[in-house]
Write the structure tokens for this entry.
Amino acid sequence: MLPALEQADDLYFDQICRVDIKPWSRGRVALVGDAACGATIGGMGTGTGLVAAYTLAGELAAAGGDHTVAFPRYEARLGSFARRAQRGGAGTGRFLAPRTARGLAIRNWLHNQGWFRTLTYKIAGERSAGIDLPDYARYAVRS
Ligand SMILES: Cc1cc2nc3c(=O)[nH]c(=O)nc-3n(C[C@H](O)[C@H](O)[C@H](O)COP(=O)(O)OP(=O)(O)OC[C@H]3O[C@@H](n4cnc5c(N)ncnc54)[C@H](O)[C@@H]3O)c2cc1C
């Protein structure tokens, strides 16, 4: 990769960062996914985005489409879950993208250890299950 880098004329380089927006909605516009509560690398962003989309749609249905009711409920229901994922992502990002060769070597060695993989799956499993989601099916519109 390093020799190829010298020749590249379309190199994209960016930092890993996060912007926090509060609240997640204004007027008739509400944010989901990274736009609302991105956690950067290692913070379950994809799962949190799906949970956010489900909750936002469900709360809109439960409120009969009244966004002034649904949007605050959506954020209240998801806020602490999303913040927990963001806090977890802060440390994971530094670990997965270390700054030094030594950090890279330690990361790679750990990832080749079965006990370490088991531990990370356990932590991720506990974090991702840390929210009780309502069943909004009774609000579904049937045609
Ligand atoms: C290096 C890295 C590793 C990651 N690893 C994981 C992981 O292992 N597990 C995990 O769950 N998450 C991980 N994430 C986080 C995950 O990728 C994000 O949380 C997730 O992609 C967010 O989805 P999203 O739909 O909210 O946003 P995005 O996936 O960013 O989608 C937004 C889309 O909007 C488009 N867009 C932007 N502006 C405009 C515009 N003006 N008009 C039209 N389109 C526009 C963009 O091009 C993009 O396609 C990782 C992230 C990074 C950077």
